Automatic annotation (TrEMBL):
Higher taxonomy: Bacteria, Pseudomonadati, Bacteroidota, Flavobacteriia, Flavobacteriales
GO MF terms, alphabetically ordered: damaged DNA binding; DNA-directed DNA polymerase activity; magnesium ion binding
Binding site for Mg(2+): D14, D108
PROSITE patterns linked: UMUC
Protein name (record): DNA polymerase IV
InterPro entries: DNA/RNA_pol_sf (IPR043502), DNA_pol_Y-fam_lit_finger_sf (IPR036775), DNA_pol_Y-fam_little_finger (IPR017961), DNA_polymerase-Y (IPR050116), DNApol_IV (IPR022880), PolY_HhH_motif (IPR024728), Rev_trsase/Diguanyl_cyclase (IPR043128), UmuC (IPR001126)
Segments crossing the lipid bilayer: none
Organism whose genome encodes this protein: Flavobacterium croceum DSM 17960
Length: 360
């Protein structure tokens, strides 16, 4: 692999069906049964599914109606995010016993750089095994891990032997490992991009690697450069314990779909007010206001406007969001509205994530 930079020892730890596994851990009656966290058989969206439910094709982001159709025996469980955060903190405490270079991606996954580690253990593979065993012994949950020379390959590898497994990709194995992978397994290649690649004759990592940089940039613009390098296992991003905030967002899912823009204005006013409060704590402001609209058919649309100055005032946020709402006609009734602030005024803050409670 033509990589002039020094190789690192990176572990990506990914908890197995985290939310669902926590619910089964706390409630023995749910163990071994197909459960969905979030949603309901009437409406709503599944946040997580147990492996028993996944056998029936139940997935996160699937409507509760479709999930119940796929699995008639499915049990819906209300999310308990405070409990998930509590356990996540314990998991991260274990990580920090091995290295301070821990970069959480969410409550249930993180990167660890163990090139130099607190245990003085030269084997990243053995460290990953030990961490996974400790999570199981101390918390009763299983985790999977990927171990390799950079974050990209480690993340791809963590999905290879799920659940409750791990995969090490040594430096000399990186390119051959990626060549045989289905392109849909590449982190950063979503469903839409995969379909575009299929039309271009790209089905595996080897196919992607065969394309020139010019070809990929022509068809995928700036992302072409990223695809060109990851096909060769080249990814220089470091594990960063504190990531700069890129956006602050708030959204509401409604009990009943909305068809009137007047009612939507009322909801946007509330969301703007919540967003202002959330921006006060880290003292951030932004220039770009983005309105998120999810329709009754579950399709999502975003509309953005960049202002000439930084704002954090609910009135300006609301007026801008309202302007975006009327930018064009809505195609369906609306089940979710959200506002996010991007292009923030600081790069020294921690990531800010805001998820307002669902309306039940």
């Amino acid at each position: 692999m033509n990589n002039p930079k020094p190789l690192r020892k990176i572990i990506h730890v990914d908890m197995d069906a985290f939310y669902a596994s926590v619910e089964q851990l706390d409630n023995p009656e749910l163990r071994g049964k197909p459960i969905a966290v979030g949603g309901s058989e009437a409406r709503g969206v599944v946040s997580a599914a147990s492996y028993e439910a996944r056998k029936f094709g139940v997935r996160s982001a699937m409507s509760g109606v479709q999930a119940k159709r796929n699995c008639p025996e499915l049990i819906f469980v209300k999310p308990r995010f405070d409990r998930y955060k509590q356990i996540s903190k314990k998991i991260r405490a274990i990580f920090h016993e091995y290295t301070d270079l821990v970069e959480p991606l969410s409550l249930d996954e993180a990167y660890l750089d163990v090139t130099q580690n607190k245990k003085g253990n030269p084997s990243a593979t053995l460290i990953a095994q030990e961490i996974r065993q400790r999570i199981f012994t101390e918390l009763g949950l299983t985790a999977s891990a990927g171990i390799s020379v950079n974050k990209f390959v480690a993340k791809v590898a963590s999905d290879y032997n799920k659940p409750n497994g791990q995969k090490t990709v040594n430096p000399e194995e990186v390119e051959s490992f990626l060549e045989q992978l289905d392109i849909r397994k590449f982190y950063g290649v979503g469903k839409v991009t995969a379909e575009r690649m299929f039309h271009l004759g790209i089905f595996t990592g080897k196919d992607l690697k065969s394309k020139s940089l010019d070809f990929l940039e022509t068809h995928f613009n700036k992302s072409g450069n990223y695809y060109y390098h990851i096909a060769r296992g080249i990814h220089y991003s470091e594990v960063k314990p504190y990531r700069a905030a890129k956006s602050v967002a708030a959204e509401h899912t409604f009990r009943e779909n909305l068809t009137s823009e007047i009612f939507m204005e009322q909801k946007l006013s509330r969301i703007a007010e919540e967003l202002e409060q959330r921006m006060k704590k880290p003292n951030v402001s932004g220039k770009t206001v983005t309105l998120k609209i999810k329709y009754s058919d579950f399709s999502t649309q975003t509309r953005s406007k960049t202002l000439p100055y930084f704002v954090a005032d609910k009135g300006i946020i609301f007026e801008t969001a309202k302007e975006l709402l009327y930018q064009e006609r809505l195609k369906e009734s609306v089940r979710l509205l959200g506002i996010s602030m991007n292009n923030l005024n600081t790069e020294s803050k921690k990531t800010v994530v805001v998820q307002l409670k669902f309306e039940f």
